[in-house]
Specification:
Radius of gyration: 18 Å
Number of helices: 6
Number of domains: 1
CATH topology: Arc Repressor Mutant, subunit A
CATH superfamily: Winged helix-like DNA-binding domain superfamily/Winged helix DNA-binding domain
Shape: globular
Strand content: 5-15%
Helix content: 55-70%
Order of helices and strands: HHHHEEHH
Length: about 140
């Protein structure tokens, strides 16, 4: 089923426009809130994924977070320069780079849950529980492969 036609398509009424604008609003607000930790919202995703053991290599992080490998490398460079993480070559396969949070990285990652929910809850404050669940369900359906 087609939801758009070339005759009726209006950029500002498209789902893509709304999702992109919502992302931009959220990134701006999250980046401002995370400034005290000296990280961005994208770096937050890296640190939390590593802290929870969801991803431990640049490739896994790129795939999980939907970030191309070039940008991922630049973000990891910045986090490594801040001494939030360390890279090491795999002993089994020298092509694989393993990542580990430093003590400072662990401390920063541990503080993120104090900040991120406040930003998200503020943006969602006018949503009922049912609206929140429905939005979550629909967005997960939209991004499913």
């Amino acid at each position: 089923m087609d939801h758009y036609t070339k005759e009726g398509f209006m950029l500002t009424h498209s789902i893509g426009f709304a999702i992109n604008k919502a992302r931009n609003v959220l990134v701006t607000e999250m980046d401002a809130a995370l400034k005290e930790l000296d990280i961005t919202s994208q770096q937050m995703g890296i640190l939390l994924s590593m802290k929870r053991g969801i991803a431990t290599t640049p490739f896994e992080l790129s795939k999980l977070l939907g970030i191309d490998t070039g940008l991922m490398t630049r973000m990891l460079d910045k986090l490594e320069a801040k001494q939030f993480l360390e890279r090491s070559r795999s002993l089994e396969d020298r092509r694989v780079v393993n990542l580990a949070l430093t003590k400072t990285g662990e401390e920063i990652a541990a503080r993120i849950p104090e900040i991120a929910p406040v930003v998200l809850n503020n943006r969602l404050k006018t949503f009922s529980k049912a609206e929140f669940k429905e939005m979550q369900r629909l967005l997960l359906k939209f991004i499913a492969d």
